[in-house]
Amino acid sequence: MRPASSVHIVLLVILFVIMVHGQVARWSNERLNKNLKRVSCSKNPAFGEMTFTGGKMCCFWSVIPKTFADAKADCEARGARLAVFKGADKMAFLISQLSIWARDIWIGLDDIQKEGTFVWHDGTILYKHEYHPLYFSNDNPDNDDNQDCVDLSWSYWKFDDDSCSKSKNYVCEKVL
């Protein structure tokens, strides 16, 4: 009987070591991924890591105003997109930045494809029941056919649809 129980003990010890090693590897990978995200943001000198209540973003804040199309193209050339600010945490973060910038800022939201259907640049739709009061100052932001692009308005401290041909500062988001 003794040899059988020794074999069982050895197998249990080996199994335990494999499980512990797997957990350590998982923790190391999680830590490595977090560090890689930080490094990815810091390796792009124009981008900075922005921390808000719900997480972090790797952002580029323009100092040269551009039209919406040019701002979008510039973000894409940087391997990024016009920034997506879905949810109360990101919205509060964006508004806190507005006091620093003191001007309207293009973001990654528009209704270019279909009038009245606002689409975030991650492909999701901002539904009408979400418009007011978190994002827009009124419940019908789409009141002009020539206003298809969305900025964070310095005047309202909310989103505003405006003519895409206007030049404004903008914020890009590197998706990590």
From TrEMBL:
Species in which this protein is naturally found: Biomphalaria glabrata (Bloodfluke planorb)
Top-level taxon: Eukaryota
InterPro entries, A to Z: C-type_lectin-like, C-type_lectin-like/link_sf, Ca-Dep_Lectins_ImmuneDev, CTDL_fold
Keyword Ubl conjugation assigned: no
Protein known as: CD209 antigen-like isoform X1
KW Magnesium (keyword) present: no
C-type lectin domain span: 54-173
Keyword entries, A-Z: Signal
Signal peptide extent: 1-22
Pfam families reported for this sequence: Lectin_C
PROSITE patterns named in the record: C_TYPE_LECTIN_2
CDD domains associated with the record: CLECT
